[in-house]
Amino acid sequence: MARMELLRCKKMDMVLSLIITISLALPFTGSCSSHVYSRRSDFPEGFAFGSGASSYQWEGAADEDGRKPSIWDTFVHSRNLDNGDIACDGYHKYKEDVQLMVETGLDAFRFSISWSRLIPNGRGPVNPKGLYFYKSFIQQLVTHGIEPHVTLYHYDHPQALEDDYGGWLNRTIIKDFTAYADVCFREFGNHVKLWTTINEANIFTIGGYNDGITAPGRCSRNCMSGNSSTEPYIVGHNLLLAHASASRLYQQKYKDIQRGSVGFGLFAMGFSPSTTSKDDEIATQRARDFYFGWMLGPLVYGGYPYVMRRTIGSRLPDFSEEESELVKGSSDFVGITHYNAAIVTNIKPYFSGYSDFYSDTGITLTYPCNDSSTGLLLDTCDDTPWAMEGVLEYIKQSYDNSPVYILENGKSMKGDFQLQQKDTPRIDYLQAYIGAVLKAVRHERLLCMVIDGFVRVT
To answer: Is residue 162 flagged as an active site residue?
Structure first.
């Protein structure tokens, strides 16, 4: 089977993903059968299978046609890391890629727009060549019957905004992000009905401002600058406000005409306690509050979880009454990225003179991998499809039946020529996880409905 870019893109490994719409709610009343997933027709008519990519991992053409550096360009080049200067060369080969999508039988394709290609300085004039590229690409998708799902921000704001005022650390970015979103809604909204404002907001914040291992590379330890005690929470706060501002703009200016939806992205691991002790069970809920509730609490209920407010104190920004109302209910859906399970162990509080996101959680996480040195999501890690079921059920029960899109799911592997011939590990992984989603649809007493060409399970 042809695989879009997985064969020709060597440095930047695109993870095959699912784009599946799930909203968990009412008692089951449909006629979904109960046999295990074995073929595409097991899903209700209209269920969408897709793939995805981010602009920096896919486009390449880093300094062509008016594009200027993003924080990812600066991050990888300053550290002499593999980079996306060429990546999968999608900027030049997007028509070929769409043909591969057609051959693969994709219903949908999720991609992100490079803010620094469309508006190179982050604010001000739109780059006409960047605008032409995205319009042409979207038109190719639509012409071939593939539903475009657009992410506005995937870890990569223009470096100019980082230099001007510190990027997401400064509330000025809320206005600039809203203006950027306005351009996207206006120019692409006639063909795009599904928008995700921020991708994996929690992990972007932790990686970029707590650990310093992703752009912009800020942290308290082993980084040139940063404050892991405060910056993750400031950035997370501003991400939520920027999302809410863009969502309000869409509702007021475009919704009635374009009839689209605006959602927010979250990295969602399946948490389980390491023992049956009460301490580990409480710690597991604390993990969910910090990793999920950090963003979902404000989006659904208008405020941060109590355990975060109690633990973090004044380091956690407050929403004004007006901001709380703006953020609450601002997301039409939650877009989750899910790859793996995490085992939670409680740790006793101790004072080290140093606070960061991890010390605030009061937990340790371990992963079901045989060789932790190779990192997560490789062939050393166990497949844990039950974790997917748990995430969907938890969001259903805890966050007011919020509609959920599974935006990413997959298994990354080390490069191996044999995998190009028969990629059994990933086939098995996807088979198991797709089956887990189908099981959640059938066994969690959910109602199947088709809305806007995607299956929503309510």
So the answer is: no
